[in-house]
Each structure stands twice: as C-alpha cells, then as structure tokens.
Amino acid sequence: MLKDKYCILNGHLISIYEPTVAFSNRAFRYGDSLFESIRLCNNHLMFLREHINRIKIGMTVLRMNLPAELSTENMHEFIMQLLKHNAHAPNARIRLTVFRNDGGFYTPETNDISFLIESDELPEPYELNQKGFWVDIYADIKKPINKLANIKTGNALMYVMAGIAKQSMKLDDCFLVNENGTICESINSNIFAVKNGTLYTAPLSEGCVAGIMRKQIMSLATENKILTFESPLTSYTLMNADELFLTNSISGIQWVGQFKDKFYTNQVTQFLFEKLLKLCH
Which of 187, 189, 184 is nearest to 161 (CA)? Predict the structure, then answer.
C-alpha cells in the first residue's frame, strides 16, 4: 500500500494521489508557469524571501496577477505545515509552482493564478562533491536573450535536451551557450570561474537564470574580500581558469574537475562552501 504523501494546492493540504489538475491546465498545455526550488538545510528554510521575490518578478514579467496570499510569511507557514505532514526534515527539497488558471488557448482568459507546493526528503545538508564534475558544452540549442531568460518557467525543453545530451556523453553536466555564442549557465546551475583568487560569472544580460545561490555566493565573496566580476564567459575564459564551480539552491556549490582537456583544483570553492554551510546553522 502506498504511503500517503501530501502537497498544498492554493493553501489546502491534499494527498498527492488525489486528482486535482485537469488536462486543460495551462502549465501542462503551454508551460504557462513558474517554479522555485527551495532548500531545507538542517531545518533552515534557505533564502525563502529571495525565492518569493524572484517568483513575483517572474509573475510580473508573465503578466500574472499577484494574490495577497503569496507572501513570504504565508509561504513559510504552508511549507512548514507540508514538511510536518510529510515528515520531511531536517533536509528537504521544496518546489513551489505558480501557474495561470485554466481557460483560453495561447491567449489566456484570465491572469489569475494557482499555486502548488510539493516536498521531497533529502538525505544530507549541503555537501561538496568529492569528485569534480566532468563537463562539456551543449550547443545544439542556443539560449535566447530576452525577458524570459532570467526567470524559471515551466517551459524547460532546452534544459531537457541538454540533459539528454549529458547522458549520452556520460557527463555530469553541460554548459549552455546563448545566442551570442558565449557560455551563460549549466543545465541547472550558474557558473563561476576562479582565476588568481578572483571570481568571474556571467552577468544576467548574458541570459542566465537570476540564481538565488549565485547572488548568495557573490555576497559571501564580497564579505570575505574576494573580488567578483560579472563578465561574459567563453571557452577561453574557462580553460584559462584555476577553478570552476556551479551553484544552485538545492546542491549549493559543486566543483568542476574537468572541462574538455583542462583539470581544475577547488581551494577557493572549498572556502566558499564552508562559508555557505555556516548559513545553515
């Protein structure tokens, strides 16, 4: 017998086995949705306010109506309720999805939204990978640079195709290329290069997702007197770096061991990872 597991739809706790989403759902039909992946680390909900702010920015871009209940305080209460019912603690992944309500074809009949909160238990707090990732470039589909590039929408086919390419090449991740031919991000992370103790990362104008962890790492670097520059990343930039690491809200920091035929160390990466871990306590 399946163990009951819960989600929250529009503030109501329901079983995940209870059918609630119709075939006419706009997230299913058109990818007309946004989502946030939020980390519970050692019973701390990490950077929730920043996640809620980002999804609100995305909703504004997509011209969705912003309901009053979509506040940091309400979302915190709902998430903690869900984690309690699912017994997902002290480490978990929470997904908040916002989607435009049913109606219309490409042109919606309403800009009102619904929200769904899901959770999955994770075994550990943030953990730095022992073996460096092996990464190469996926360039079959270029990422457009437009007002959708920096937000996390439910339309993720480019990332899916990059994930399939990663599997076929037996890689740990792939770097994505934007319409200008420069490297903007990986399949699920922002990219940082380290050269002579200085950090380099692609600016948002390059089309990368406005990563929550990206922002936190830049802040930690500043606090610890590590220079950070936002500048376009090329293969030459990455091949000339001493270290490469990837950042996202769920994994925190993951270091790259090999890109093409270049191998990397991870001293600065380890230093920043230790600073990140202190935010979980």
Answer: 187
CB 56 within 8 A of CB 70: yes
| Mean pLDDT confidence for 221-226 | 97
Superfamily of domain 133-278: D-amino Acid Aminotransferase, subunit A, domain 2 (3.20.10.10)
Strand partners, 201: 192, 230
Domain with CATH 3.30.470.10 in the chain: 6-121
pLDDT digits (tens, 9 = 90+) for 183-206: 999 999 999 999 999 999 999 999
Helical H runs in the chain? Answer: 26-30, 48-61, 72-86, 157-168, 212-223, 235-239, 267-278
* Correct CATH for 6-121 of 3.30.470.10, 3.40.50.720, 3.90.1150.10, 3.40.50.300: 3.30.470.10
Instruction: DSSP for 215-270, please give it.
Output: HHHHHHHHHTT--EEE--B-HHHHHT-SEEEEEETTTEEEEEEEETTEE---HHHH
Q: Exposed e or buried b for every residue in 168-181, given b needs 16+ CB within 10 A?
A: eeebbbbbbbbeee
- HSE (CB half, 13 Å, CA atoms) of 279? 18
